[in-house]
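From the pipeline queue, job 12 of 40. The input is one protein chain; the requested action is below.

Action: predict structure.
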Amino acid sequence: QNMSDEELYDLFKSIDHDGSGSLTLPEVILFLKSLTDDLSEENIEKIFDGLDETGDKSIDFEEFKTVLQSLSDAGWNRYEPSANIKDEEITALFNMIDKDKSGSLSMREAKKACKLIKDRFGIEEVEDWVLKSDVDHDGVVSYEEFKFSLAGNMMIDL
């Protein structure tokens, strides 16, 4: 199931949360964890270091293409979004979406991360999800609301 350059580039852009044109280790860790449970952060770091040919702690698009090729050659499998998610992962994800570090997710932040939310948690309608998750109707999703909504969607253990 090889992807075209265009598909790869779209994927690259969706992982590149800050729009810098290159991927940082935290962006890569979060992305790979959203795809497979087989990789520990340590292994992801090794993959990252191996790909980061320039040693500048970021991966450009060409380096990224090499990574995905090596992953698919190694036979990794995309996992079902309903797999159990650990607290640390929920926290990491929340913090990654919470760009302004306000401790809550705005509609704008959620929309920017909608591909991530969709891929990882199988949530299709992000706007709808934000409105439903915002239990106290303050216009943002707090960490507790976020965790609770994922529990509802994913059947994770709280």
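Job complete. Strands lie at 23-24, 58-59, 104-105, 141-142.
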